[in-house]
User: Which sequence fits this backbone?
């Protein structure tokens, strides 16, 4: 563990305000790298699944929904206001996110509340925010990522 801790300190020397988030994310990445280093037969499958995850996150509406759910469970009507999209559109995106295992639905009477299915999604969204804050201007001028 001491070796992994020193790698962690090198990788994230800027001391984030939520070190547990980085520790959990680092452990996941470390395990994935170990699998790839050992030429694990599922390495290409992991890459394919990761690609699908990021493809799903690439949609601005779905990403906005996930970011809104960081604060806690919300209803379709709430998410419709946040995204500026019609309720049927938001429902379709939520169905996609639910089918992929990224959000979960919790019925409560006549309402359904949606929340993040895995708390590690908070870590992923946080790290994305950190990266965007660092390279945002470069992303804005990148001709390959036109909307």
Assistant:
């Amino acid at each position: 563990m001491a070796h992994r801790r020193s790698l962690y300190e090198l990788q994230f020397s800027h001391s984030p305000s939520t070190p547990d988030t980085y520790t959990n994310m680092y452990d996941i990445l470390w395990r994935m790298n170990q699998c790839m280093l050992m030429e694990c037969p599922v390495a290409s499958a992991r890459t394919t699944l990761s690609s699908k995850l990021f493809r799903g996150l690439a949609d601005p509406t779905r990403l906005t929904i996930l970011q809104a759910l960081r604060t806690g469970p919300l209803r379709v009507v709430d998410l419709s206001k946040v995204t500026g999209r019609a309720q049927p559109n938001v429902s379709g995106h939520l169905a996609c996110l639910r089918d992929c295992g990224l959000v979960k639905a919790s019925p409560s009477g006549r309402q359904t509340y949606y929340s993040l299915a895995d708390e590690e999604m908070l870590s992923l969204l946080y790290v994305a925010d950190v990266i965007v804050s660092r390279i945002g201007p470069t992303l804005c001028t990148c001709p390959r990522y036109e909307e």
